[in-house]
């Protein structure tokens, strides 16, 4: 058995990493951890402030380190930030781990996060911006993932069950 997280969730913002991650942690009798939260705690500032003050490349370097530490320390369910897979070093760190890509189509994305002003990436023309973002990222999510679980028209409970099935994990 390799050590490290039981499940690593990747996927775009709003795909359900936090919601499904918490359900999975409960089912597996494990704890949930989120590298976005680790970065905010370590830096003492919001992710949006890190982007504005230091730029995305600096954020991606902080994120790579947060992912490295979490993969080494955490034995439960781990969710990564939506853009973590953009960094080649982060992708390399993920290779030995049970990574699941939570996917969703554009209509589901607009329903879940398109009207939420807290996600300014999608604020102006949600459908076009979503397509552009996913055109740049889809192959990277797929590359790092051991399994892809579609979340469209599935409840969070059904998605959690599909993740357990895909990784052949049993409830605690
Ligand atoms: N399978 C689902 N069906 C319907 N709504 C869902 C589903 N999964 C999550 N949601 C809803 O979509 C929204 C985004 O979910 P969540 O915060 O879990 O996504 P996330 O991947 O953690 O996003 P972020 O990258 O911003 O942290 C929430 O309002 C959540 O309740
Ligand atoms: O999709 C992205 O690039 C991001 C997603 C969030 O989880 C955060 O990691 C940050 O806002 C960047
Ligand atoms: Mg989340």
TrEMBL record:
UniProt-annotated binding residues for substrate: 36, 60, 82, 137
Cofactor binding note: Binds 1 Mg(2+) ion per subunit.
Localization per record: Cytoplasm
Listed EC numbers: 2.7.1.71
Family matches, as PROSITE patterns: SHIKIMATE_KINASE (PS01128)
Main location: cytoplasm
Superkingdom classification of source: Bacteria
Pathway as given in its UniProt record: Metabolic intermediate biosynthesis; chorismate biosynthesis; chorismate from D-erythrose 4-phosphate and phosphoenolpyruvate: step 5/7
Keywords linked to the UniProt accession: Amino-acid biosynthesis, Aromatic amino acid biosynthesis, ATP-binding, Cytoplasm, Kinase, Magnesium, Metal-binding, Nucleotide-binding, Transferase
MF terms (GO), sorted A to Z: shikimate kinase activity
Domain spans labelled AAA+ ATPase: 3-146
Catalytic activity from the UniProt record: shikimate + ATP = 3-phosphoshikimate + ADP + H(+)
Binding positions for ATP per the UniProt entry: 14-19, 119, 154
Binding, Mg(2+): 18
Function as written in the Swiss-Prot or TrEMBL entry: Catalyzes the specific phosphorylation of the 3-hydroxyl group of shikimic acid using ATP as a cosubstrate.
Family: Belongs to the shikimate kinase family.
Subunit structure: Monomer.
Name recorded for this polypeptide: Shikimate kinase
Taxonomic lineage of the native organism: Bacteria, Bacillati, Actinomycetota, Actinomycetes, Kitasatosporales
Gene transcribed to yield this protein: aroK
């Amino acid at each position: 058995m390799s050590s490290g997280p039981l499940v690593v969730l990747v996927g775009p913002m709003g795909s359900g990493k936090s919601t499904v991650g918490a359900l999975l942690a409960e089912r597996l009798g494990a704890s949930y951890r989120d590298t976005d939260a680790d970065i905010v705690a370590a830096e003492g500032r919001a992710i949006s402030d890190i982007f504005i003050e230091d730029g995305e490349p600096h954020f991606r370097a902080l994120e790579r380190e947060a992912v490295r530490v979490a993969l080494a320390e955490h034995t439960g369910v781990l969710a990564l930030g939506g853009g973590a897979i953009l960094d080649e070093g982060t992708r390399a760190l993920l290779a030995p781990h049970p990574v699941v890509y939570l996917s969703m189509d554009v209509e589901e994305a607009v329903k879940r996060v398109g009207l939420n002003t807290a996600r300014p990436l999608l604020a102006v023309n949600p459908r076009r911006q979503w397509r552009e973002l996913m055109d740049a990222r889809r192959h990277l999510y797929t590359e790092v993932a051991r399994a892809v679980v579609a979340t469209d028209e599935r409840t969070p409970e059904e998605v959690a069950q599909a993740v357990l099935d895909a990784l052949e994990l049993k409830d605690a």
